[in-house]
Sequence to fold (204 residues):
Amino acid sequence: MARTQAADYDQRRETIMKTAAELYAKRGFLGASVAQIAIACKTSKSLIYHYYPSKEDILYDVMDSHVQGLTQAARDIIDGPGDAPTKIRTIAHALMDLYAEAQSNQKVLLNELGNLPVERRSVIVAHQRALLDLVDQLLIELRPDLSSAKSHRRALVMMFFGMLNWTHTWFDPSGPVKGAEIADMAADMFLAGLDRNTSATAIS
Fold:
């Protein structure tokens, strides 16, 4: 007889996902077993498999929930009020907040993508590209001269994310420099760099 779904099914899945994210971040996906996830969750392997058919399913959920959260945050900002520079700054702040809240998920997203099956990896990559495209929209507003230079815009967008994506490797939320300050630093450098290099990177 099939096991019935508990009233707190979604909450338990999220607990498993968050616990697995921490283990994957510390030990790597290949170094963390379902048995270790079960021990960390203080439950049994069979119960883990009730919520997730495989370790790869958990990995996918760790990445998918995180990248979709990042993308939705950026989309909400872009759809809201404010000019392009303000939205760039607000997105930087939102990303830093989300990275600080989910450092393990961010580390797993950046380091373990290759361990997903091709089909699922393509879904995550599509979400990542959607996030880049949202910032690309703002870049066109900031630099209309680059509207027909997609490769140049993509490089600039990647540089913006490059200042923020890897903060999980060194940023200490309890340290003297706060996430909001780092977000402002990244936004300031990105916006100032665009302004200084208008003529240098313009495409004729």
